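Re: Re: ligand-bound prediction request (bumping)

Still looking for help on this. To restate: I need the protein modeled with zinc ion bound, output as structure tokens. Inputs repeated here so nobody has to scroll up.
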Amino acid sequence: MKCQYCEKPATFHITELTEPNGPQVMHLCEEHARGFLQKDSSSPAVSVAGALAKQLNLGQTKKELAELDQKECPVCGISFFEFRNTGRLGCPYDYTHFESDLEPLLTNIHDSLEHCGKKPRRAAASADSQATMIQLRREMEEAVEREDYERASEIRDELKQIEDASSKDTSAKDVNPADTGGTDTSGTESGDAS
Amino acid sequence: MKRNTDFSELARNSGEWLRGTGPESDIVISSRIRLARNLADFPFIRRCSDEDRISIERTVRARMEAIEDWQDIRYVDIEQLSEIDRQFLVERQLISREIADADGSRAVAIDPHEQYSVMINEEDHLRIQVMHSGLDLNSAWDRINALDDKLEGAILYAYHQKYGYLTACPTNVGTGLRVSVMLHLPALVITQQIEKVFRSMQRINVTVRGLYGEGSQYTGDFYQVSNQITLGHSEEDLVSLVGDNVVPRIIEYERKARDFLISQGQKDLHDDVSRALGILSTAKKISSEETMHYLSKVRMGVNLGLINDVAVGTINKLFIHTQPAHLQKLHGRLLGSSDRNVERATYLQRHLSGSVGPGELN
Ligand SMILES: [Zn+2]
Ligand SMILES: [Zn+2]
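Reply:
Sorry for the wait, this slipped through. Here it is.
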């Protein structure tokens, strides 16, 4: 038997047990098998996003989809079309900018829309402030490129300020139970002591 | 943190997770947890400029350097490595194939015991992973949680009130957590029950990958079980789903299948595993697939008490050390495929004849 991807003999026969249509067998040569098996083995669900993103068009007319595809993130410039084709987003702000388009996808993948796990001790105050930070950083790089070091260092200070403020903001808004001393991942060690 | 790209010492030894000890280590090779994290003030990798990547690498490195008790951490600039050294780190499971093959600025920080590593500029800006020997997810979680705390004290992560930790791929958003347990299930494969067992587990949000699946002439009998979803459950729940719920059931099935094989014909089984050991310890040249196949049999033979003079740790180590980049590092020069087959046979012979102990060099 020959490898599915080249002319070499297939010496590896890999069974994907979790394909939606039942187990799928792949016949590969050593080289292609190595590539296949080591392709991000730590995130097996990676291909799901691309597949589901492609299914998004089911509920939409061609025209709606064409419009959606042209929608672009104002921060990183990624288009929804590019995301649909790669399964990868361009920046943290995409979760805000494409929110209504992503929610059906997230529900599909996770059966949930609400994070209920660990929270960081420090976090940017809002999606907007994260977007501002990314944009400032771009400007800073451009300033360095045109050797405007004065402007670059101004932006650096501005970034630092936002970062410091962000951290404070979140604790003030009580996003941040860690600041009260315990770990923020569980309540097991809190309060009940006699 | 030390900059260090001399892997010769690393090549001769093996990581903690290969010790072949820990709970259920006759069936569970390793427990791994990884967290995906991104910096709040950069685009995700796909939309990063070269300058962004350089800047991320520098920022993260500087902040890691400031972490106390990280003096022993080895910091490796992957862009500077030779192809063979990258392959070596992949075989060692310290970096992913994806980051090895990528372009541009990228790096990995490695703990000297190889229990954890932090990749910079993989699919996400940070991929933290912890790997332990045997079924040991709870302590792996404690470990990685503490590591994450340290890093987030120094780095502002991309985080959303509702969606949690933001990741480049929506399949990782929320906790960013992937729990993976590597299982050795030869008896379920021989008794042809493996598919049935995994089919019964569908719809409970775990992914199973057969690494060298059934129907193959050369099978390694290794399977990886991971959580599929990352959003909507706490980290502890996801760890427990895999570690307390799914894996113990698979272990029980494998144990039953092993008992069945022994009751059916101990002589046949004993013959089979002894021949496998015979081939590995006397062959003059051997391919890596054949090696996987026979090592899998020997590993089962050792665990069933049919082979007594080989340690499980030795077998685990041989799985890694007989792979191409490891063989070449150990040999000290590049080898073509047929030379590797000879070198591999020599290496196996030396380690299985009892002349080299599991902890010793070369
Ligand atoms: Zn091929
Ligand atoms: Zn964006």
